[in-house]
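W.,

You were right to be curious about this one. When I first looked at the sequence I had no strong expectations either way, so I just let the prediction run and decided to look at it fresh. Below is the sequence, 300 residues in total, followed by the output.
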Amino acid sequence: MKSIGFLKKIFYGFSFLLFFLCNIIDLFACDEAFSPGTIAFSLRVQHGGIVALNHTIQSYPEQSTGYYSRGGAKIGLIDYQLALAGDIQMAAKLDMRFPIYDEGGNTYYMRKGEPPPFPLNNTENYENALRSAIEDFNKAIEIHPYFYQAYRSRGSAKERLQEYDSAIEDLNTAIAIDDFYSYAYMNRGVIKLLFRDNKAIYDEAMSDLSKAIELNPDFAPYYYERGLAYLEVDKPNQAIKDFNSAIRINPYFALAYYSRGNAYMAIGKIRKTIMDYEKANELNPNLPASPPFTGYPDFN
């Protein structure tokens, strides 16, 4: 019996180590698309991490980091399942975009209103999975009220549930606790951009995105998001500058090339548009098909 208990400890320890290593790898990853094999492996790692964290929480129920990590693992498992199902992609229209980020700079997009077919096979299951993660973040915050990362993660989960006011409240709290937390500014700015028809809110969103860049000028997604914000109000030249910065930091950022192509199209630079679309699809063949350019004069 002792040997069985020892083997269980080895299993839990190995599962948690895999989960930890997966997150460390994510911090340095720059690719936007996972191969099916990588996704399947990541699913196993995330699931193993949750199993290990269940055991950790049972042993140390007053440790806030266990709940926070399990909530994050659940979100990660949702994302990997979505990716495996092929439902994470950039939407063809900017107003349909729903960004999913990790703090390592990976950027995914999924279509709004389309829950993953398996195993989160309906909207109710998808919402329940997110609320399960939120419960873990709630517990982490209950134990450690100044756990600003937990507020941000909870806000991000609420954003996916379209509970925008509550999400912004959590992000406000995260920033109040640590006003150097650039990722929370980015999250808050992205949510406010959903209400960009209100100029005051749009200005607040741009201020948040600019603050994120000020605090962490070497994180490509911040420039990318601000570039999208410029595109959404017909400022393609400013957008191009931000996409240039994103690509300079991360030359493999396929979505930045794709969006810069859209910006070049807006100002009539067809040759540059084609070059960016081709580069984007070279880096990530799963991006939406580029518009046909047959017959366009190649004068830019």
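Here's what jumped out at me. Confidence is low (pLDDT under 50) at residues 6-46, 84-121, 292-300. And, maybe more interesting for your project: Residues 61 and 92 are 45 Å apart (CA to CA).

Coffee later to discuss?

I.
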